[in-house]
Amino acid sequence: MFLEELTRFLPDHWSPMNLRQKWEMIEVPSYTSEYTYIKSQFQGIGSMGPIYRIQNPVLFTKFYMKTIDYEMRGDTKILTLYHDTVQSNVESIAAFNIDWRYGERFKYGPGVYFSTSSFTAQRRANRELGQHRAMFLVNVLVGRTQVGRSEEFLPDIFNDTVVSPDGETYVKYFDSEYYPTYVQFYTASS
Asked: Which InterPro entries match (predicted)?
């Protein structure tokens, strides 16, 4: 019963899926307008492989419900941002979302770091993790922001997002505030 109710909140462009399967990565066909649009978002990141749409009904519903919560509080926007990682992390992210506990650098506290462009995400990623990379296109819920201060732990009360002084990095602290929509596999140039 609950799984069937869940489908009311899912995006219309998702491929049909067995709702007993927790998540799927659907390869986006290269001849579609969806592919052309998503590929244009991943410019300048190296030798590109396939693009996958991430379909995770439970994660998406959490994000959707959090969006409603934010909208009830006032100013809210959903930004499309980027997160770079190694390819070996992709399945875990598709299944459970991006987890700040696996991060290694926390200039603005223990959160998940997103960039305003794929170029910036790649440039600020940990290069020691190798050339076989994955770039996520992520919907990020943003309400009240504050400019980050070095070695910050969490945003001030009533704020939900920290933004770097240059405006190119957003930091989120709760996993229901972002949803990974697509992932592009690529090989970074040396």
From this structure: ARTD-AVP
pTM equals 0.91
Q: Which residue reads 């519903």 in tokens? A: 61
Domain edges within the chain: 22-187
- pLDDT of 126 above 80: no
Give the CA angle between residues 175, 181, 182 to the nearest 5°: 130
**Which is more confidently placed, 159 or 1?**
159
Q: Compute the distance between CA of residue 133 and CA of residue 114 in angstroms, rounded to an integer.
A: 15
Segment 45-48 long-range contacts (CB within 8 Å, at least 24 positions apart): 45/118, 45/119, 45/122, 45/133, 45/135, 45/184, 45/186, 45/188, 46/122, 46/131, 46/133, 46/186, 46/187, 46/188, 46/189, 47/186, 47/187, 47/189, 48/184, 48/185, 48/186
**Top CATH class, 22-187:** alpha beta
One DSSP character per residue, 106-136 reads -TTSSSEEEESSHHHHHHHS-GGG-SEEEEE
For residue range 70-115, list pLDDT tens digits in order. Answer: 999 888 999 999 999 989 999 999 999 998 776 666 677 788 999 9
Pairing mode of beta strands 132-142, 112-115: unpaired
